[in-house]
Amino acid sequence: MASVQTALTGATPSQTVRKRLRSLAALELMNIPLQGGVWFGVVGLPATATNLVGFGLFALLLIEGAAYWVAKLHQMDVRRRHLPALAAFRAARIVNPLLLAAGVVATGSVAATDPGRTSWPGLAFALFAVLEHVNYFYVQLMHDTLADLRRLRSVGLRVSHLARDIARAASDASVR
């Protein structure tokens, strides 16, 4: 994809990648007020504790995603082998499943006992947060470019960028 964009725009591959990383970070952050506005404003979902817990988990994962793309951009800019704030991402990889499990259990139990608009959206947000966690920390689930889609068709799912960064740092540490 970078070569096609380079030919069309005259940008170098690294400029194209930097632009993509900035775009990914911005889109993750913009999705928080956008999704909140759509679901709680336009659609009119009630801002119950259950719905807000689920949405909060979803927003947390979007913030972590944006932080990753900003860190990746910084890594490129300063030409570091390892991702800045790697310890924070390692900690999130451990803490997130605990928060997500608690959130899914809490929203799921309310959805089971009091189903409807006051609870189902919260459970759905919590489940989307789980998918975002998997997408960032384990397996790339999001495929939004032609190159991603071609690779998905030919190779299948692949390890996420952040998971590869964490593994690279662990591998380098074990070599020392």
Automatic annotation (TrEMBL):
Keywords: Membrane, Transmembrane, Transmembrane helix. It comes from the Bacteria. The chain crosses the membrane at residues 24-46, 52-71, 91-111, 123-141. The keyword Transmembrane applies. This is Uncharacterized protein.
